[in-house]
Amino acid sequence: MDPGSLEPVHKRPAKRGPVLAQLPVVVGVAVVGDRVLRLLFSDGTAGDVDFSGERWTGVLSPQNDPAYFAEVTVDPEAGTIVWPGGIDLAPERSLSN
Q: Is 19 exposed, middle or buried (0-12, 13-18, 19+ CB in 10 A)?
């Protein structure tokens, strides 16, 4: 094949999928019941998450103690809820409840 007879190849820009919206992060938390948390998210939404039906095992077992559960705080760098000792739950888990 004669190289002069080849048509130039036109590169098409790569197709890009939709930009995924950033998930909101937790910015506030309050204990409002027996293993029930009220979460405030960075997008201004708030909601209650009821963990009363959970039976935590393994490394999460300290959360079965209501006094320990009430020690929940927000990790502002990670945007998650955390307990002493490094136990944390990601916003995705909180949003799915």
A: exposed
Half-sphere exposure for 21 (CA within 13 Å, toward CB): 5
pLDDT, tens only, 42-62? 999 999 999 999 999 999 999
Give the list of residues 6+ apart from residue 27 with CB closer than 8 angstroms, or none. 40, 41, 42, 74, 76, 79
pLDDT at 9 over 50: no
Region for 43 from its dihedrals, namely left if φ exceeds 0, alpha if ψ lies in -120 to 50, beta otherwise: alpha
Residue type, position 23, single letter? L
- 87 token code pair: 């136990």
Residue (of 21, 19, 20, 25) closest to 43 by Cα position: 25
